[in-house]
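Dear colleague,

Thank you for sharing your sequence with our group. We've completed the structure prediction you requested, and as agreed, I am returning the results in plain text so they can be pasted directly into your records. Please verify that the sequence below matches your submission; if there's any discrepancy, let me know and we will rerun it promptly.
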Amino acid sequence: MRATFADFAIDPPRFGNATARYAKCHPDRDRLAIGAGASVELDFALDRDELPEQLTLTLIARVSPLGESLGCAPIDITVNGHAVIEQFTVPGGARPREVAFAVPGEALVAGANTLYVRGCDEARGLLWLYRITVEPSRICARMHLMAEEQRDEAAVWAYRTEWRAPGSAAWRPAPRLLVHLDRGEGSLPVRLAWRGQDGAEASIGFQPAMTEFYGHRRAADGALTEYRGALEGRSSLRDSALEEVMHRFRTVEGGGAGGRHLGQELRLLIEDGGPPVERVIWGDPSGHSGTVSLLAAEPGPEAEVTDLVTRVRAHSEFTEAGEVAENLLHDSWHKWLGHGDSAWLEFTLRRPAAVGHYVLTSANDVPGRDPRDWTFKGSDDGEHWVDLDFRIEESFAHRHQPRGFTFPARTPYRHYRLEITRNAGEDQIQLSQVRLFTSAPQPKGFIGHYQRAGEAPTGYRGTSVTAAPEPESAAALPRAIEQWRSYLAEYSATILRVADEEELSEVGDEQRAAGWLGFEGADEESVLALEERLGTRLPPSYRAFLGASDGWLNISPFMWRMRTAKAVGWLREADYETWRVIRGGEGDDWDDTAFMDRALLISEEGDAQHWLLDPADVSEDGEWAAYIWASWYPALGDRHASFAELVAEERTGFEDQAAPEVRTARPESAEELVAEGRAQALRGEVRKAMATFEQATVKGSGAGAYLGIILGAFLDISAAHHWIRTGILGNAHVMEAIGMEQLRAEAAPLYLRCAAEEWTGAPGGYLPALGDILPRLPEGVDGVVGAGGVAAGGAATEGDDTAAWMARAAAFVPPALPESRTFQQALDLARALADRGATDQSWAVIEAALPHWHGDSPHRIAPVVLLTDPAFREVITPARARRVVTTPRGEFRE
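Please find the predicted structure tokens below.
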């Protein structure tokens, strides 16, 4: 028989070999809402020669909650008048359930057949129906239910795996495979294929019980092997470590003429011992299939803990060539090189951290030196080690290639060890960089398609649930009390700035002065009293709104006053006359009577409109649907997923119509970013601080640009003069933000330290600031260079003043910035030791004093004197310079 289905998750609904009729029910976005006495009839046709002995009727449905209760919406189902099920209640819960029923052959007829689903009179809520499918009975229907029953108890499948090369009789152990794929329908895959970010591919098929699989795999270097595995165990999603490596996506299905609709959350985990996957293809027992291509993301600075490393050791290193283990912590082209075809590296952290992702970067030459097999270990004491991750047959496709490896992070350790047991064939081992993270980068989303058996494919897209929300997205809406206060304060300021006096007639002088159109927030006792009176807990966003302000004025141009906690109530009780008038309205697609009987009234006075919440339409996170009823509407207004969404929609309309010029993206201010970056830097979190200062620079902060450049000089002094030349001395905005005194003490000597050796002429007219900083020499010494440091034309005369610039640089003595007493004493002792050639002892004194350093200005981020004072030139190596800024230092003091 042809596929017979009704898909109500699409607007408008889509039908296959069927037509539908409704009675007292209505399509509601991605579902059909069926209440007491409501029904839907589905007509489908069967040819005489295809009458089956039995059909399987499958529903995907959910019961709407009633406040905090699960709700109850029993249904009767008949086919051609033959009872299939009576008084059946779909199990309650936060997600749609799939249930299947047998339709006996004697209930079917050749030609037109009618399936009838009716809400029983005892219903106390709505049945949300997403999909109806009628198909020949197969064993897969039972398998769907088994998967639903098992999914919480055995969600992640772990397999012990093996590889075998073509023509070989021997199987070799391979990395463990973890599999979880769930798009909210509870169906287990029967076939699975994926591609890793390095180009490696695998394709496997499962036995019906998923206890074994068999397939093939092509490695990144093209090597082809057979691939098999046996079930080792199943783990629940309650395991937080597995949750950390699980990819979770909000999804949208559909496209083209059919429109799009929200789908169920997709959970995806395929961990095969290689790099993260970038494409997945699967099929389930019903013949449904899907494919997704992931949008890759780089590891974020918030998860990186490389800066916590205080020491790195290796089994061997080439000290004379500078190819030492310390280079692994730097963002540079330098490398570590060790003897032998096996090696170990140990990393000691300042404090324990739960590393769950690490990145290895190949070095500049000789691919045969790349690591091939290794084990990543953790330890509390540096002596007793725990295996955390095991990799074999790994490869790097090109030079300076970073590759990330993820494993479940369960325990924080202070020591980590990379034990390389085999390389790619040479008698030496090398890497360019090692980075440590607490969690893996999450894909930003995916694109793909999904295809149900017998149907055309449909578009399938997803956004990571961990991705930063777009400014206008529901995830960005206020929910907590403090979020509401901030949101409403901005909204108040906009209204007070653009509204006329008539619109603000009820706003008092005190509210105008405070810039706050609300009142004191309702305390917890008042909110609890309201909930006790209503007999239900309020939805989160509205509950938090009351906590931020107990009532509100001018929340929209047509809503002038919101009710207080004491005045909120069911519409039928709080405003009986309005309830009596509007409950009788008849809409084509909505039963106004039932809705008005249960609606919660939260508004008090408006322009012939009322704001209402629906306790029978509750989302997974507890939000109630929100509506506006107004006298000029033929029925209820548009549905909003929450009270917060309704407020945001009204605010957007107000700003679009009344004040488009005052709309802003409301970004975090540059000043806040600078303060955050400074705090991160003083905690030793250098990479996070650099990323934060970059954000501040993009938002126009001169201080952010300066602090980022100074911090970067400690990480790579060789390139500092390029950054200082263009980013500081060539940028008047930055110079103005910092001031000449600090530029003379820090930026200028840093620039001169590196730039003097490269000068082949004067700095040029693009650096007038340097001419103002360097001292003037007696007439005749600096030739044609004028008092401002450049020739009259704005640029130094070519070829005749290099010596003059060099002389002025040599005569420059930077001012000494004040240091704390403890740190100044350490500097004096360290200089004396350095003068005697005791560089290691000098460094030991400085290192011990670093935690006591603090700046006397918010624009000081580290003791730059360690880089600029010639006395410390041999003391502060690149590795030690990095140690300076990864060591936590004292806070800024006034």
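Summary note from our side: The longest strand covers residues 224-235.

Kind regards,
the structure core
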